[in-house]
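User: Design a sequence. Structure:
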């Protein structure tokens, strides 16, 4: 019975993401379609990976999202070295519509992004599962130097 509940919750999460993406509204756990008044709104969130002064940090290093809302995470790298935006557990708790970088649009499961110097990427997604997740740059020495953060998803 517990396994069946997990399947039902996972299925409803997918339905919520699809409903938001299609612009028909959100679907509650009971299966009811909610008002689509804000469903097409996308909230932009900007994050810098490093700084022009070469500080090894995420700016900001704490991100807050709400489950069921649509976001466009705009990542840029103003530094002269590459950086990673790595947050596997966060990535597993969202539905990714797309990632755009340059003239490329990527769809499917994303776990981390590498941004070369001067690069910009946009990650459009809907959080599905609440929780607090770690963010880090996995390049040797960057995490130890403070390039870490936290991502929170509220219910």
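Assistant: Done.
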């Amino acid at each position: 019975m517990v396994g069946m509940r997990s399947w039902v919750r996972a299925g409803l999460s997918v339905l919520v993401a699809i409903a938001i993406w299609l612009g028909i509204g959100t679907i509650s756990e009971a299966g009811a379609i909610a008002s689509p008044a804000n469903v097409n709104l996308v909230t932009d969130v900007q994050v810098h990976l490093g700084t022009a002064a070469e500080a090894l940090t995420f700016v900001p290093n704490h991100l807050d999202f709400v489950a069921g809302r649509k976001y466009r995470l705009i990542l840029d790298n103003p530094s002269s070295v590459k950086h990673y935006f790595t947050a596997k557990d966060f990535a597993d708790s969202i539905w990714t519509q797309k990632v755009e970088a340059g003239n490329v649009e990527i769809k499917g499961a994303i776990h981390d992004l590498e941004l070369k110097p001067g690069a910009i990427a946009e990650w459009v997604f809907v959080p599905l599962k609440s929780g607090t997740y770690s963010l880090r740059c996995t390049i040797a020495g960057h995490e130890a130097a403070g390039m870490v953060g936290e991502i929170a998803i509220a219910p």
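The chain has two domains: 1-36, 41-154. The chain has a mean pLDDT of 84.
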